[in-house]
Amino acid sequence: MNAVDVQGVAKRYARVWALRDITFQIARGELVCLFGPNGSGKSTLLRILATLSRPTRGSAHAVGHSLQTEGDLVRSRIGFLGHRPQVYAELSAVENLRFAAVMYGRQAARPDLRRAVEAVGLGAVADVPVRGYSQGMVQRLALARATLHDPELLLLDEPFNALDAQGLDIMDRLLDRFAESDRTVLLATHWLDRVEGRASRVLALAAGRLVSDGPFAAAAPDRATRQGAR
Amino acid sequence: MTAQDWRRAWAVAWKDLVSERRGKTAFNAMAFFAAIVVIVFGLALGPDRPSFVAGEETLLQYLAPGLFWIAVFFAGVLAVARSFASEIEGGTLDTLRLYPGDRRALCVGKIVANCALLIVLEIALLPMVAVLYSVDLWSRLPSLMGVALLATVGFATVGTLFAAMTATLRAREVLLPVLLFPMLVPLVLAAVKATTLVLRGDMMGELAVWITLLVAFDLVFLVVGTLTFEYVLDD
C-alpha cells in the first residue's frame, strides 16, 4: 500500500493555477524530498495532503484513505509542520503539548509530555510561556507537536528553517527514527544537503508542475546546483 | 458528539481562557470599552433628568437595561473577533483544522470561552450600572442572572459563528459587526425587554414571552452553528 497516492491533482487560487496535473506515489517507509523554487507549489501540495486545502481537480489518498471523503481518518494518522509554528504563544511547551494530546484523543500524562518536550531540547523551559522562546525553540516545539501522536506520515514544510545546530541535530535524529520505524516522510526544503543519504527520491516542482521524479543524485547532481537553489 | 469530543471542546475553551488570562488581549479592551459606554451615557443623559415615559424614574433608570446590553454586546464583538483573530495571527487556525474528530467540538469550545469572558464582563459592569444609574439590581439578581445567561449564550453562539466566517477575510473587523448585528436584533430586543420587566415588575405577564424568544434563539443558533461550523472552517 502506498503511503501517498496523488492522481492528477490541480489547485487554482482565483485565476492562478498553483498546481497542475500532479501525479506521483510514495511507498510506505520512504523519505521523499519536495524541491523547487519559491512559488513552485510545494506548500500548496503539502497543505492538500494535510487536508488543509481541497484540490480543484484530481484525487489524492494518504495512509490508505481518500483526502476528500475520509479527511478525519487521514488527519488522525498524519503529522504536519507548516511554514508557521502553529503553537500557542501564551501557553507553555507542556501546555501546548497537553492541548495537542487531548485534541488527538491521546493520554496527556505530565511525565510523557515532559519527555516529549525534553526530546526536542526544551526541558529547561518546559513551563515557560512560548512567547519568550526564540524562533528556533518555537520550531522545535512545533516539531514535537507534529509528532506527538506518532503519525504514519509526516509532512514537513521547510522544517530546517530557524533551527540552530542543536535543532538540526534533533531533526536529523527524528528523520532517522522515522526511517527505522518504517514510517513515511514528505519534506519540502531548499536544503538538499540536509537530506542527502536519507531521501530516496526528489520530486522537483516548477511553476506548479512536477518536472522530475527520481533518485536523489539525479535531481541534485552537484553541490553548486543545490547551493544555488537556496 | 462523543465523550472524546466533549473533552476536545473543554480543551479548546481551557486553551482560549488561559491564553486570555495571560495575554489579556480581548478582556482589557472590551472592559474599557464597555465602561466608557456606560460612563458616557451616564454623563450625557445626566443623573437627575426625569423620564417622561415612566413616572418617577429618572431617564437613566428608565434606559438602564438598554444601555447595559448595548455596552455588553458592542464590547462583546471585540471578544468574539479576537477569539479567531488570535488564531489567524498565530497561524494556529490550521492547527485546529488539523486535529481529527468532530469539528463541532471546536465550535462548542469557542462558544464556552466567549460566554465565560462575557459573563465576567457583565459581573464587572452590573455594579457600575447600579451605582451610576441608581438602579436597584440586587433584589432581583437571580432573575437578572437568568436573563443575562440566556442573552450571553445567544450572543456568544452567533458571534462565534460569524467571527469564524469572517476570520480569514481581509476586512473582517468591518464585516463582523455589519453581518452580526442584523442577526442579533431579536436577541437584543428580547434581552432588553426581559431585563426591563425583571427590574420594573411584570404586571402584564409578558416576561415569559421574551424568555421563550431568548431560549428559542439560543437553541436555533446552537443547532445551526454547530452543524455548519465544519463548512465554515473549510478552506
What's the layout of helices and strands?
The complex is a heterodimer of chains A (230) and B (235).
Chain A (H helix, E strand, L loop, with lengths): L1 E12 L2 E12 L3 E5 L6 H8 L7 E6 L2 E2 L4 H7 E4 L11 H11 L6 H10 L15 H13 L5 E5 L7 H16 L3 E5 L3 H4 L5 E6 L2 E7 H4 L3 H6 L2
Parallel strand pairs in A: 3-8, 3-9, 6-7, 7-8
Antiparallel strand pairs in A: 1-2, 1-4, 4-5, 9-10
Helix pairs in contact in A: 3-4
Chain B lengths: L2 H21 L3 H19 L13 H32 L2 H6 L5 H29 L8 H26 L5 H29 L6 H27 L2
Helix pairs in contact in B: 1-5, 2-3, 2-5, 3-5, 3-6, 3-7, 5-6, 5-8, 6-7, 6-8, 7-8
What's a concise summary of this model?
Chain A is an alpha/beta fold and about 230 residues long. Chain A has helices spanning about 40-50, 70-75, 95-105, 110-120, 135-145, 165-180, 190-195, 215-220, 225-230; strands spanning about 1-15, 15-25, 30-35, 55-60, 65, 80, 155, 185-190, 200-205, 210-215.
Oligomer: heterodimer
Percent helix among the residues of chain A? 25-40%
Order of helices and strands of chain B: HHHHHHHH
The number of helical elements of chain A comes to 9
Q: Output the number of helix runs of chain B.
A: 8
Main sheet properties of chain B: none
SS strand fraction of chain B: under 5%
Give the CA-based shape of chain B: globular
Mean pLDDT across all residues of chain A, rounded?
87
Taken from the alpha-carbon principal axes, the silhouette of chain A is globular
Helix content of chain B: over 70%
Which structural class is indicated by helix and strand composition of chain B? mainly alpha
Question: Which terms would index this structure?
Answer:
heterodimer; A: 230 residues; alpha/beta; six-stranded mixed beta sheet; 9 helices; globular; disordered C terminus; B: 235 residues; mainly alpha
